[in-house]
Design brief:
The structure is a homodimer of 391-residue chains.
Chain A lengths: L13 E3 L8 H7 L9 H18 L5 E5 L3 H12 L5 E6 L2 H12 L3 E6 L8 H10 L2 E7 L1 E2 L4 E2 L3 H9 L3 E5 L18 E3 L13 E5 L1 H8 L12 H9 L10 H17 L1 H21 L15 E5 L6 H12 L1 E5 L8 E5 L7 H17 L7 H10 L2
Parallel strand pairs in A: 1-12, 3-4, 3-5, 5-8, 8-9
Antiparallel strand pairs in A: 2-10, 6-7, 9-10, 11-13, 12-13
Helix pairs in contact in A: 1-9, 2-9, 5-6, 10-12, 10-13, 11-12, 12-13
């Protein structure tokens, strides 16, 4: 190699931040599979298999269930820009960064955005949704199922029922839940649901699995105007994925190899077993953090199994601790965002990263690091091990 | 694995279509590198290296020179949506599918589009650009450097000078040229230039390298409205890549590993040597095709070294030949698009795929397949070998 350019040998990290999570070796191996063309009969078979497996994870029969060619945020944009037109009223629940982002995205689609604001760290109450739906002709109601910025798991069924009662489409962000926490797209009456590959699916970032119910497809088909994004226009992308295979854009082939492989791993594990694993490891982590004397951030009634948020103790500096964890333990955890920047940590246990060894590592590493920073604590790993002993 | 799911073992193809091209083993290996986080100090270094190497390939000093998180078409959309606002006049040269696509993308950005139509297979004449620039207040003038649908290489300098004379920004699609054919962004006065990774850069599809000159950045900074795409909004993405590293969306880490590695390979080979290699192999292929009695499609004065288009002989069926090439030789070549669908083939020799062995394989395989289909021909490989003997 030319002088000055290094070999590609980044550190080997344990990824317990808000995503990406660690990728299973089989999925990494799939990434390096030599490519076939995006119209090759062998690739079309892989596309079909990927769609089938995605339907299982989304628990849906929706025909249009595909990976959009971008990261989770592209999924958010695809969800809004395909069904929202200029002047449409969109109702958005905001109790974290990703609800905020939804408002921004919807406004760029020229929607009239009605916000339902809630407290960061708490779930949203359905009542204000009922009032807003009553008082407005709402085309789309959108909420975040798993708020990555707070670690809150949002109950969806009541809000979904309200949207049905008032003829609104129901749009859900499942970026940090899909594949780690129940997402029952059909059973819960979700019309558009999107996710990202780098969280509980444990794939590298780069694709946004997304599913459209027929109700959403109808809204797309009856638009008065073209979708403002050519790249994410599902009226065309549908033809390539689920229609006559008409070329739209070159599919990100290697990423789809990886997603397909990660979905096979999920299929093998089984959704129920996978959800139970996420709950178990999360419970152990939470018990350990509390034993260390730390206070959890999210409302106890609505805590995510895939991401745990915890207050940073008084007097402890965020960056110093996270830097030390990275340097001494090759361990990544996440910092806070928005109003809780510098005040909470976010510890992800997603997909392949959700295992007992990582829980114990996180607690032991935090124990040592916090003690060195002058915060006396102990007993984290013991509490976690006790939690594992429970059935 | 569960019953019914296959191992991921697609056929090993020689990819001589319009992209993706074959990926160098080192780049495939980079794809399977375990991930670090998108804000990890080690990843930030890889981002910096990638930007530096991209600047070399684009031959630019533009600070904002990055891979956008989508395929080449996302690059096209990013180019337009960041600098075009509602009502802006955009002048677009159309002599192939990708010029057409530009019009569609610009219209979705609510531009007033003025088309300069040209013949498929011929380069665009600067004169109508001069007239249109004189008669309109044109904010952006856009052309395709290497028309993947026709195999035409568009000269850019004269059109660029006209844009400067009339105060228009100059936007160029270099999807099928960057890394295989000269693209002198700064020297030629290009303001926005984008590409894709799966052509002459020989990386998997999934990223769109793009560069913005200060003139384009100014247009972005002085917008009256927000960029309509949140996902591709470079006023925010710039902060993550070239500013204070503020989180925007999770970068497609593995794809960036791969791009970085492919750019290192280009740097090692040297741009001039790489361009010469593309020309040499293309000349040999063209000589061989003509020896087989086939007629080339693109105007001889403006033929692309990275993609050769050739008329399908009378009475020969497109799908039968391409199917046989794939089945018997594991060889992919491309069919025609739009008005020349079923009438031309497109043979790419891009990046890692551009080598003597592939030229000889393509000619021998076409020879055998065409003869079986009743088209008598011979002498393709000999003509190519003679071409290689020339200095």
């Amino acid at each position: 190699m030319s002088e000055g350019y290094n070999e590609l040998k980044p550190a080997v990290r344990t990824l317990l931040g808000p995503g990406p999570s660690n990728v299973h070796p089989r999925v990494l191996q799939a990434m390096s599979t030599p490519l076939v063309g995006h119209l090759d009969p062998e690739f079309l078979k892989i596309m079909d298999e990927t769609m089938g497996l995605l339907r299982s994870v989304f628990q849906t029969r929706n025909r249009l269930t595909i990976p959009a060619s971008g990261t989770g945020s592209a999924g958010m944009e695809a969800a809004f820009c395909n069904i929202v037109e200029e002047g449409d009223t969109v109702l958005i629940g905001v109790n974290g960064l990703f609800g905020e982002r939804m408002c921004d995205v919807a406004e760029r689609c020229r929607a009239r955005v009605v916000r339902i604001d809630g407290e960061w760290g708490k779930a949203l109450d359905p009542d204000p949704f009922a009032r807003a739906l009553r008082g407005n002709k709402v085309k789309v109601t959108a909420v975040v199922h798993a708020e990555t910025s707070t670690g809150v798991l949002q109950p969806l069924v009541e809000i979904s029922k309200l949207t049905k009662a008032y003829g609104s489409l129901f749009l859900v962000d499942a970026v940090t839940s899909l594949g780690g926490v129940e997402v029952e797209t059909d059973e819960w009456g979700i019309d558009v649901c999107y996710s990202g590959t780098q969280k509980c699916l444990s794939c590298p970032p780069g694709l946004a699995p997304i599913t459209f119910h027929e109700r959403a497809m109808e809204a797309l088909q009856h638009r008065a105007s073209k979708v403002q994004s050519w790249y994410l226009d599902f009226s065309m992308i549908e033809r390539y994925w689920a229609g006559d295979r008409f070329y739209h854009h070159t599919a990100p082939i290697s990423m789809i190899y990886a997603l397909c492989e990660s979905l096979r791993l999920i299929d093998k594990e089984g959704l129920e077993a996978r959800f139970a694993r996420h709950r178990k490891n999360s419970d152990a982590l939470k018990a350990g953090l509390e034993a260390l004397g730390l206070k959890l951030f999210a409302d106890p009634a609505h805590r995510l199994p895939s991401l745990t948020s915890v207050w940073i103790p008084e007097g402890i500096e965020d960056a110093a601790v996270r830097g030390q964890l990275l340097r001494e333990f090759d361990l990544e955890i996440g910092g806070g965002l928005g109003p809780v920047k510098g005040r909470v940590w976010r510890i992800g246990l997603m997909g392949h990263s959700s295992n007992q060894a990582n829980v114990l590592l996180a607690l032991a590493a935090l124990d040592q690091t916090l003690n060195r920073q002058g915060y006396a604590c102990s007993g984290g790993t013991e509490a976690a091990l006790n939690e594992y002993k429970k059935i």
